[in-house]
Specification:
Strand content: 15-25%
Largest sheet: 7 strands, mixed
Bound molecules: pyridoxal-5'-phosphate
Number of helices: 11
Structural class: alpha/beta
Distance between the termini: 50 Å
């Protein structure tokens, strides 16, 4: 069978773009992933905060099967019912009026950037600069990498796309200082996810809205990670009592299937035919999944469970932090981070994997927890007990190393 990858060999045919463990996962169900040799892993990465309903949820499988045998791809040049239904549902559930669907978070953000630039051309005399933030994350296309504030990303693939000055997160004066005649928008994550789960303060978010109103700017929230119930409410802007002009969604919207969305209020909806598009945009297969997922997420009971499980997780993390002498616990809903020692987090992720527990370290000094949003109390408890074992094992190893040294 010359065309199958050999399980005993690392894959040489995949480009080497990520440092990955050699484990090959073959099956997932709920909170659990299973590898090729039959080992089970308890998963709090969940496809990078994507699998809001856990692995292989029945509602997604059913929507895929139903739509695949009904209408797969009429082309973006024609209307389809699942796209219309999902757009109507998102509009009804939010403060926005119109929706554009795409396939990835970065692509939705590209759309937001284009929308803001066109709005600036029409209404602000060609203003085009979008103020973004240090340690912010908006994706991996050339423009969204330029909007991203990860250290080092400004020199990754030079030249950068111009027009994304960087302010300091939660520092209103740093934003004000960057506003000029060329400024058209301010774009941020309500919680900096890849930046280590750092929430915008209420005062900061309200201050940004006031600055936008004062200077005639658009407020763009990248809710690719925080949207779809991840932080408790359906959208994170609802924490703040602030309405953005534009919002992007991704990750959880498809619960594992690639779909993203760009949402905007009437006054910002300036695209005309030909301005934006893509082969897979508003594809009925992924829109049918989005609709099935939103039907589950957008109920008071579901969101109440996210809040309750989040409280349970936070309390457990605070106890562990105290008992192990670790640092700050930050987050909301089911997106949390725990500060550990400098450069300890990457090794802890490895230790966790050896214990059959999948975790993520967005920065070298902090662990991030992204369980499925439909986790049960028993499952949150299970994860906390696994984490306790991992922290104890890590402390044992580092203490022995220190004694030998
Ligand atoms: C993941 C993420 C993106 C990028 O989404 P992709 O689907 O990987 O392109 C953009 N913004 C935020 C806040 C994210 O967390």
């Amino acid at each position: 069978m010359p065309y199958l990858s050999n399980p005993s060999q690392p894959s040489h045919a995949l480009m080497n773009t990520v440092v990955r463990p050699e484990t090959v996962f073959v099956r997932g169900r709920g909170a659990w992933l299973y590898d090729e040799i039959g080992l089970a892993y308890f998963d709090w990465v969940q496809g990078w905060a994507v699998n809001c309903l856990g692995h292989s949820p029945d509602v997604v499988a059913a929507a895929l099967a139903r739509q695949a045998t009904t209408l797969l791809n009429p082309s973006p040049a024609y209307l389809n019912r699942p796209a219309m239904d999902l757009a109507a549902r998102l509009v009804a559930a939010s403060v926005f009026d119109e929706v554009f669907f795409a396939s990835s978070g970065a692509e939705a953000n590209e759309g937001a950037i284009k929308l803001a630039r066109k709005w600036g051309r029409l209404h602000r005399g060609g203003a085009h600069e979008i103020i973004t933030f240090a340690n912010g994350y908006h994706g991996r296309t050339i423009a969204t990498m330029s909007a991203t504030g990860k250290p080092g990303w400004d020199i990754y693939y030079p030249p950068q796309v111009p027009g994304f000055p960087k302010a300091v997160f939660n520092d209103l004066a740093s934003v004000e200082a960057l506003i000029g005649p060329a400024t058209v928008a301010i774009m941020l994550e309500p919680v900096q996810g890849e930046g280590g789960v750092r929430p915008a303060s209420k005062a900061f978010m309200r201050g940004l809205r006031a600055l936008c109103d004062l200077h005639g700017l658009l407020l763009i929230l990248d809710e690719v990670q925080t949207g779809c119930g991840r932080t408790g409410p359906l959208f994170a802007y609802q924490h703040y009592g602030v309405e953005p002009d534009i919002m992007t969604l991704g990750k959880g919207l498809g619960a594992g299937v690639p779909i993203s969305a760009l949402l905007a209020k009437h006054h910002a909806c300036v695209f005309q035919p030909g301005d934006q598009g893509g082969t897979f945009c508003a594809n009925p297969l992924v829109c049918a999944v989005g609709e099935a997922v939103m039907q589950v997420l957008d109920t008071p009971e579901f969101l109440a469970n996210v809040a309750a499980r989040g409280e349970q997780l936070a309390q457990g993390l605070r106890t562990l932090s105290r008992n192990f002498g670790l640092g700050e616990v930050r987050g909301s809903g089911l997106l949390w981070a725990l500060e550990v020692g400098a450069d300890d987090a990457v090794e802890m992720v490895e230790t966790a994997r050896r214990h059959g527990f999948l975790l993520n370290a967005p920065r070298s000094h902090c662990l991030r927890f992204m369980p499925a949003l439909n986790s049960s109390a028993v499952e949150i408890d299970h994860g906390l007990r696994l984490l306790e074992k991992v922290l104890a094992a890590h402390r044992f190893v580092t203490r022995n190393v220190a004694e030998v040294a």
